[in-house]
Every structure is written in structure tokens, then in C-alpha cells.
Amino acid sequence: QESTHIYTKEEVSSHTSPETGIWVTLGSEVFDVTEFVDLHPGGPSKLMLAAGGPLEPFWALYAVHNQSHVRELLAQYKIGELNPEDKVAPTVETSDPYADDPVRHPALKVNSQRPFNAEPPPELLTENYITPNPIFFTRNHLPVPNLDPDTYRLHVVGAPGGQSLSLSLDDLHNFPRYEITVTLQCAGNRRSEMTQVKEVKGLEWRTGAISTARWAGARLCDVLAQAGHQLCETEAHVCFEGLDSDPTGTAYGASIPLARAMDPEAEVLLAYEMNGQPLPRDHGFPVRVVVPGVVGARHVKWLGRVSVQPEESYSHWQRRDYKGFSPSVDWETVDFDSAPSIQELPVQSAITEPRDGETVESGEVTIKGYAWSGGGRAVIRVDVSLDGGLTWQVAKLDGEEQRPRKAWAWRLWQLKAPVPAGQKELNIVCKAVDDGYNVQPDTVAPIWNLRGVLSNAWHRVHVYVSP
Ligand code: HEM
Ligand code: MTE
Ligand code: MO
Question: What's the complex ipTM?
């Protein structure tokens, strides 16, 4: 009998390019799939996401691989086995406040490990209308708290003359259950394009700080009504506090206007479910706020306390961050009190396929992406250009029907277009229009701001055409 080659994890992880060979593992088996990459029915770039590591986390997202013909095909590329000693779990460094953070999906492109901030790669982002939980973008400011669902309590501070509530998870489940599809976008999505104009402070998000889920939970207005609050016209705010905190004990916090919180049509949820599952730890287990049409920063995770206040939350993230400024304001001159906190977001779209710098086939090109607008405004059209914005074609919109004034979720879009003969390069551009006929600005410079938020200029991708 032939002896089996044994490889370490390190050896496997150093095989991620055509030069070194492209290796993957399934269970304890090692495969050299270099020759298969260009033949992959799901495309080479998707397969490459797993290069140098295990296939399981990716195949868990795509059930098409659970078929015998796929296993047989893979078996042809087997080169050996993984070193069994490599399965020993790494030792845990207990003084690290992030040591207890959950395990993450390897497809995520990590912008910062501690705190954990990561986005799905574009070619997975628009593969599904509903983003699978394991690749939903994650934006944490602090370590992820590990909360016990049995002892969890949500404190709701009552109205004058009303009552304060301490709600268990069961209590929350006893309120009428609502389920809605909502897209969440970080104010810093596409910040990396602002950085190209001039340096900004913040994480280098590309186009993936946006994702969509079906959220289920109790309506905030029902919970506040039980605590004695009523819809009123006064200037008041609903403040949220997370159970994640920094070493000084300061918790993450944010607020929204009371009028939005009490408006049943605004559908603000205290969500306990994401895509039919309890919330994953990274996304706020056991309860988070979901504020449809509003910037991600107000969707407070690991929710501990809700209170109605005459003023906005005093949290750093409400008052000293997540605000927009004129391009000429710098860190010397900025006055954070002079600008309102970001609530609803402007119209947004981006191209997810092809990728910048890619080579596409001549003949026909398929262009894919997403489009969304804040405040429940529906996307009514996406225009795509192959010539840098001289001429435009209208893309086909996919995804759920959008309710008037409650279009909380994105549209995915697609355009199949002939590549003009003799063209060596394409400057692909997209821009969306919402139902207020709001449009995206054509360039980044006039909307540049020191924090790199609200980056929604036309998205541009430059590709080569194979001869
Ligand atoms: C489709 C093999 C890695 C995503 C397929 C199919 C095969 C295959 C045979 C067609 C199945 C059918 O329709 O019956 C493989 C092998 C891989 C690999 C051998 C590793 C060596 C991956 C990875 C991803 C992925 C890492 C995702 C990150 C997909 C998708 C499709 C697909 C989305 C469906 C394409 C479509 O329906 O248009 N793959 N795959 N694959 N694969 Fe993979
Ligand atoms: N809530 C708490 N408690 N702590 C946080 O760090 N980050 C906010 C918001 N809620 C945050 C939070 C920001 S800025 C964003 S964009 C969203 O959560 C991200 O939600 P996600 O990680 O589920 O995608
Ligand atoms: Mo964010």
C-alpha cells in the first residue's frame, strides 16, 4: 500500500496562488485544486476564498456541494492528509478582553481583529438577497459580551406616572411578534474611497459594510406603551444602552427620536431573531434594536436599557461621532455640536461584480450590485455605464417588493450588456435613484468629510477585456 502524505495546516495555508499551487482541505483530507479553479461552476473567485484552508465553512453556505458528484470530483485532486496533531485547540490568553469573542467565518474580510470588524467579500455579498448570518458584516466597538439568556433582563425606564419594566426574554416573546426584512448599513461603508481623496479617521470599509436580514421581535412602541409612553410631539429621544463596555465601564449607546420610536409605521423592533435563528453573539445576542431605514450605529446590540430622555444620548457615538461635515472642516476646526447626528441615510449603490482590475470576457459582461436608500425610500432605478458615465443602461432590479414609505431593504440588481467591439478596457459605473428622485453625487471629493462617513458617490470599477 502507498504511504499517505501528511501535511501541516501551515503547509496548506501557504498554498494560495497559482505559483505555489492552490490547496484546500475537507475533513482531514488535503486537495490540490490548482487545475480546477478555472473550471469551478461557481467561478474562480469564489473558490479562491477557501484557498489554503477548510472548505466546510463555505460549503455550509452553498448546499449545491452536498452531492456525490461534487465529492467524486474533489477526490480526484486529493494529495494527502492533515497532520492529526494540528487539531489541538489553540490555548486561550485569558487576560485578553477579546479572548471570549466568538469564532468567525473565514470568508469575512477583517478590517480590525480587536474589536472585531469585518465585511463579506463582494462576490458573496450579492449572492443572496438575504445575507447568511455567518457572513453578515460585523461592526463592534468593544469585546462581545457573553450573556446568559436565562438571567437576561431588559430595563425599560418608564414615563412619569408610568412604570419601569424589567423584561426577561420570555416577557419579550409575549409581546406580538413582528418579522421584517431590513438592510443595515454602517455610516462608514465605502470609506476607503474617501481615503483615496484625502486621509480620514476610521476603518477602511470597502463596499461590504451593508447586509440584509429578516429580523423578528417585539415592536419598541408596544414595549414603551406598556411602560406608559404615548406618541407625543415633544422633542424627546429614546436612548439605548448596550451591555458591552470598555475597561472604564462605559457602555455603547445611541438614541433615536421618540417620534420614530412610537410610530407603529416606523416598525422599530427589539429583535431576538435574525433569519430564523436566535441572534448570533456578534449581532447582539440575545436582543438588539433594529431601526429600519436608519444608520447602523443606532441599532444597539446586546441591549440592556431603554429610556426616554429630553436630550439625545450622551454617548460618544451619538455626540462625537457619526456626523457629517463640510469637506473643509478638519480635526482642528470641527465642532461636533454644530451638526445633527446621522439618522436616515442617503441613497446608495455599489458594483459587486466584476471586481476592480479584473479581466472580463469579450462578447457579453454581467454586472451585479446592490442599491438601497434610507428612511424607507424605495430604489426606483439603477443606471449602469460601461464608458465612465457617458452613456447609461438601466439595470434589472431583483428582490422583495418594496412597500411605499417602508422600503427598508435593498434591491439587488443586474445588467447583462454587450461589450462594445474592440474595447480593451471598461470603466463601469453605477448610480441609483430613490423614490424622492434623490441621486448619488458623481464624485467623492465634494462629499469628503474628516470621519469618512456617508460615502455614496457613483461607484466605479475599472476592468480589462480579454482579447
Ligand atoms: C457550484 C465544486 C469551492 C461556491 C459548484 C459545482 C461544483 C462545485 C461541481 C456545481 C454543482 C452543481 O450544480 O451540481 C467545487 C469544488 C470546490 C468548490 C470542488 C473546492 C475545491 C467553492 C467555494 C465556494 C463555492 C469555496 C464559495 C465561497 C459555489 C457556488 C456554486 C458552486 C455559489 C453555484 C454556482 C451556480 O449555481 O451558478 N461548485 N466548489 N464553491 N460553487 Fe463550488
Ligand atoms: N451596539 C453595541 N452595543 N455595540 C456596538 O459596537 N455598533 C453599531 C451598531 N450597534 C455597536 C452596536 C454600529 S456602528 C453598527 S454599523 C451596527 O451595530 C453593526 O451591526 P452588525 O455588527 O450586526 O452588522
Ligand atoms: Mo457603524
Answer: 0.81
